[in-house]
């Protein structure tokens, strides 16, 4: 009889981001021979924690590395010593926290998987790049598996090493454009059908480049464009966002939705997706926007892999004018969004199966059979 494969998932947060969405989607499709448990370094619950606990998973609360480095290390070591895990899968934006893989590397049973979700480059803060370099050196003599959400995210994290690409995926059918949903959301926020709606999905923080978003949107308003900025995520009370609202006096034209669990209808309500991030790995939100048939205007810092299908423009973050011109261009195009030719390789069931097969194929030979 084949033993159940146990995976300890490390690196998820209390915010709903791309990593959390992907792991939650895997979780909902877990086959009977694979089990997930999770670590949580936050004082708040993990994103989707209720789903995980209702599914029979353990949530181990451990100290954060920032607050208690020694306590964090000891807690994780203790979990691996008695949990019987086949894998510790570390979802990494960088290698600034190498301890989970160091601990797995010293375990006789548990194999470490670094799953890269970010392109680590010059656009990240200097301190994080330095911490990444130190962490990478710490792992130079440790064996672990290397997985990435895209080719650039893999090359950035692992250099010339061989790694496996497992793309982020979504439920493609849920994100197809729907006229009924478009009308429903626009009615909810008192937006007329003729108003040009620019959408964005993101959490607070420097990475998403909100100053550039607001500067560009303000230029549209100055040009007399009848437009709204639709922002999805818990960002309205963020001090930076409040400061930008006051600086550009655009409160009446900005719509905050707060956290939205089911975002598909909101993409239907948009006319264009604006995503000028300083850096990304392979954004789930960009996959969702393209599946909905939206034109996408994206940071030139992002990988060419981000373009999957449809109208897609890369713009320099040095030029608000160029971004404004692109947004104006798409405001004048009436596009039929009923069909989006997005590849089936980005369907979540396909990508989840690739991850599950990876666990099975790389499991230690000595532990395969009982």
Secondary structure layout:
Layout lengths: L4 E6 L7 H10 L6 E7 L8 H6 L4 E3 L7 H15 L3 E6 L6 H7 L5 E6 L9 H13 L6 E4 L2 H8 L5 E2 L13 H10 L7 E6 L8 H13 L4 E6 L6 H10 L5 E5 L5 H6 L2 E4 L8 H8 L4 E4 L12 E4 L4 H12 L16 H15 L8
What does this structure look like?
This protein is an alpha/beta fold. 36% of the residues lie in helices and 17% in strands. The chain contains 13 helices and 13 strands. It has a seven-stranded parallel sheet. Strands 10-9-8-11-12-13 form a six-stranded parallel sheet, sandwiched between helices. The longest helix has 15 residues.
Structure characteristics:
single chain; six-stranded parallel sheet; 13 helices; 17% strand; globular
Shape: globular
Which radius of gyration do the C-alpha atoms yield? 21 Å
Spatial sequence of strands, sheet with the most strands: 3-2-1-4-5-6-7
Q: Helix count?
A: 13
The unreliable regions are none
Average pLDDT score: 91
Question: What's this, in brief?
Answer:
Helices cover 36% and strands 17% of the residues.
């Amino acid at each position: 009889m084949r033993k159940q494969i146990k995976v300890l998932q490390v690196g998820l947060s209390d915010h709903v981001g791309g990593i959390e969405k992907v792991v939650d989607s895997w979780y909902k499709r877990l086959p009977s021979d694979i089990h997930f448990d999770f670590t949580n370094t936050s004082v708040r619950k993990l994103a989707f924690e209720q789903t995980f606990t209702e599914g029979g998973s353990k949530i181990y609360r451990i100290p954060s590395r920032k607050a208690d480095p020694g306590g964090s290390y000891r807690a994780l070591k203790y979990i691996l010593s008695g949990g019987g895990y086949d894998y510790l899968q570390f979802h990494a934006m960088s290698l600034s926290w190498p301890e989970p893989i160091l601990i797995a590397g010293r375990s006789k049973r548990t194999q470490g998987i670094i799953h890269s979700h970010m392109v680590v480059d010059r656009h990240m803060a200097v301190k994080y790049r330095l911490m990444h370099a130190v962490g990478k050196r710490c792992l130079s003599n440790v064996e672990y598996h290397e997985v990435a959400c895209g080719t650039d995210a893999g090359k950035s994290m692992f250099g010339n090493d061989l790694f496996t690409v497992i793309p982020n995926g979504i439920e493609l059918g849920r994100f197809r454009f729907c006229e009924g949903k478009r009308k429903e959301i626009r009615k909810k926020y008192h937006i007329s059908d003729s108003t040009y709606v620019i959408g964005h999905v993101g959490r607070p923080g420097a990475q998403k480049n909100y100053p550039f978003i607001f500067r560009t949107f303000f230029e549209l308003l100055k040009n007399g464009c009848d437009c709204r900025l639709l922002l999805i995520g818990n960002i309205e009370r963020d001090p930076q966002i409040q400061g930008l609202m006051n600086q550009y006096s655009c409160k009446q034209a900005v719509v905050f939705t707060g956290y939205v669990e089911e975002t598909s209808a909101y993409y239907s309500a948009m006319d264009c997706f604006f995503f000028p991030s300083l850096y990304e790995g392979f954004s789930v939100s960009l996959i969702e926007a393209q599946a909905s048939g939206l034109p996408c205007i994206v940071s030139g810092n992002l990988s060419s892999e981000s373009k999957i299908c449809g109208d897609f423009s890369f713009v320099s973050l040095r030029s608000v004018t160029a971004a404004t011109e692109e947004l104006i261009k798409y405001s004048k195009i009436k596009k039929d969004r009923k069909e989006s030719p997005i590849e089936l390789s980005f369907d979540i069931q396909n990508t989840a199966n690739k991850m599950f097969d990876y666990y099975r194929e790389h499991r230690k030979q000595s532990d395969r059979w009982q």
